Amino acid sequence: MSACGETLLRVREEALLGEDTRTVKCALMTTTLAAMLMASSSPLWADCPIAHTHIGVNPTLRPDWSEPANRALDTDPDLTDNNKLWFFSLPPAHAAGTPGWPAWSNADGSAFLLASPETGPGGSAIIHPTDPTRQLYTCRFMWSKANGYDDSLGVQHVDGWHSAHGPGGMWSLESVDEQTVPGWDLYLKREGTSLAEHDFFMELPAGASVLTANGSSHQLPKAWLPDSNAWGLHEHMTFYFWLSADGSDIGDEFSATFSVYDASGMYTASDPFTFHFAVVPEPASLGMVLMGGLLAARRRHG
């Protein structure tokens, strides 16, 4: 495990030992959400209390969103990409459908995802173990189409990856039955980031840091998903960033880019998919940042 992962794991262990009641409550909430994920079901896609980036095939295939289950209304302007992998955010028919779907963006293309400070015991900042000028940030906020940011009844954004299970099997990876393990073997590849290379990493639920360098890959384990009645992917993975501890990055944007490829050769690799993040003091602060004009005057990192 990297030094970043060890630091985060130590913070969590201290909280669970009783040093910080609020953090313990957060840990319990995370456990509850995980249980909800196991029990969740949707006929169209992963309808979870935590938003995932979806991975499927055929990036130009689209339903009629007014009647998505009617496959006779599908459109597909490019029949040459039927076996091509692609990423997408929460679809328009979802209660937390992303405004700029299939990207994680607003309708005008601006940054939708928020990066805010991660906290340790007592709500304290987590400072880099070897660089006191860097503070740990993450992407964790609530959002819904009805009420926007900080909606407690919305969906927590954004964590991990889930296979696509669209209406009528749209965009789905090959799945025959529970006894037949599919041949595809998908790997997530970190293409790059507009931050310094080691200022961005991702972490698995057990605390292991992954995708810590540009060009690194991570195998996405396939599993039988009872809620979708199909083989697919469902892996939680948290975004982490080391940003300025003095708050000078507030109002800036930065990016991280990924692709996905199939080691078996069944599917062709995706195009690069870029996540854009706006840096805020706390998840509910995007409105304040916008009103303050900071985003308009930001130093754009990517």
Task: Note down, in words, how this protein is organized.
- This protein is α+β, with helices and mostly antiparallel strands.
- It has one domain (3-63, 76-291).
- Helices cover 14% and strands 27% of the residues.
- It contains 3 helices and 17 strands.
- The chain has helices at residues 3-19, 21-39, 286-291; strands at 53-57, 85-88, 113-117, 134-138, 141-144, 148-149, 155-157, 161-163, 186-193, 200-203, 209-210, 217-219, 222-225, 230-235, 238-244, 253-262, 273-279.
- The strands form 3 sheets. Strands 11-10-15-4-3-17-16-9-12 form a 9-stranded mixed sheet, with no helix packed on it.
- Strand 13 (222-225) and strand 14 form a beta hairpin.
- Helix 1 (3-19) crosses helix 2 (21-39).
- The radius of gyration is 19 Å and the shape is globular.
- It starts with a helix and ends in an 11-residue tail after the last helix.
Q: Nutshell version of this structure?
A:
By secondary structure, the protein is an alpha+beta fold. It has three helices and 17 strands.
Q: Could you tell me how far the N terminus lies from the C terminus, measured between alpha carbons in angstroms?
A: 29 Å
- What Rg do the Cα atoms give? 19 Å
Shape: globular
Structural class: alpha+beta
Strand order of the largest sheet: 11-10-15-4-3-17-16-9-12
Number of domains: 1
How many helices in DSSP terms?
3
Give the beta-strand count: 17
Order of SSEs: HHEEEEEEEEEEEEEEEEEH
Q: Which range does the strand content fall in?
A: 25-35%
Give the helix proportion (percent range): 10-25%
Low-confidence stretches: 1-46, 290-301
Q: Kindly state the mean pLDDT as a whole number?
A: 84
The biggest sheet, with number of strands, parallel, antiparallel or mixed sense and barrel status, is: 9 strands, mixed
